[in-house]
Every structure is written in structure tokens, then in C-alpha cells.
């Protein structure tokens, strides 16, 4: 309830978010790492660290470094979302294979 409906944040604790951002851009999928309030800083966002404390499977720092932030706009279609999820899944699987 207390969120913007046009923002989606995903976290992959075992991957670097920045690597995924670069890989996704090759497929014309553009997203960011971190939270909007600290997107220009190289340290994990205090917002993502706080959210990650609820998860106990990995450290909050690892979870925050593996985060991606997507913003949907009025022109975003269902097919855009399906395409993004398919490509993202392939990229995550590929990166996990080599790590």
C-alpha cells in the first residue's frame, strides 16, 4: 500500500546489480541499481539496507548490491514487461552459471 505503483525493485543477492544493468541495456531494457534517493552513490542505499534486514538468508549489503530498480511509464505495455522478465531471467541464469 505504501509504495508507488510504477516502481519495481528486485534483488539478486548473489549477483551485482550493475552487471545486470549493463547486460540488460544490450537488449534495450533500462533500469538502475539502488534506490532513487541514492542512485548516484556507490555505497549501498540506506533504504535498501533497511528493507534487506527483514531477510536473513544473506547480508543486507549483498542483497542491496544486487538490486535493480525499474520504473514503468504510461507507454509501458504488457508485452514490454513480459519481454523484460524473459530477458532478465536469461541474464540472471547466465550470470549465476559463470559465478
Keywords:
99 residues; mainly alpha; globular
Please give a structural write-up:
With 99 residues, the chain is mainly alpha-helical. The protein contains four helices and two strands. It has helices spanning 17-25, 46-52, 60-65, 78-98, and strands at 7-11, 67-71. It has a two-stranded antiparallel ribbon with strand order 1-2. It is globular and about 35 Å long. The N and C termini lie far apart (36 Å). The mean pLDDT is 81.
Concise overview:
The protein has 99 residues and is mainly alpha-helical.
- Cα separation of the termini: 36 Å
Characterize the biggest β-sheet.
Answer: 2 strands, antiparallel
Whole-number mean pLDDT: 81
Q: What is the strand content?
A: 5-15%
Rg, Å, rounded: 13 Å
Output the structural class: mainly alpha
Number of strands: 2
Helix content, binned percent: 40-55%
Poorly predicted runs of 5 or more residues: none
Principal-axis shape:
globular
Strand order of the biggest β-sheet: 1-2
Number of helices: 4
Amino acid at each position: 500500500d505504501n509504495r508507488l505503483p510504477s516502481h519495481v525493485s528486485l534483488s539478486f543477492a548473489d549477483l551485482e546489480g550493475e552487471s545486470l544493468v549493463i547486460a540488460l541495456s544490450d537488449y534495450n531494457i533500462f533500469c538502475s541499481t539502488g534506490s532513487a534517493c541514492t542512485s548516484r552513490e556507490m555505497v549501498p542505499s540506506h533504504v535498501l539496507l533497511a528493507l534487506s534486514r527483514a531477510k536473513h538468508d544473506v547480508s543486507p549489503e549483498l542483497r542491496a548490491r544486487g538490486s535493480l530498480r525499474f520504473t514503468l511509464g504510461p507507454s509501458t505495455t504488457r508485452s514490454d514487461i513480459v519481454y523484460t522478465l524473459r530477458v532478465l531471467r536469461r541474464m540472471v541464469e547466465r550470470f549465476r552459471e559463470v559465478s
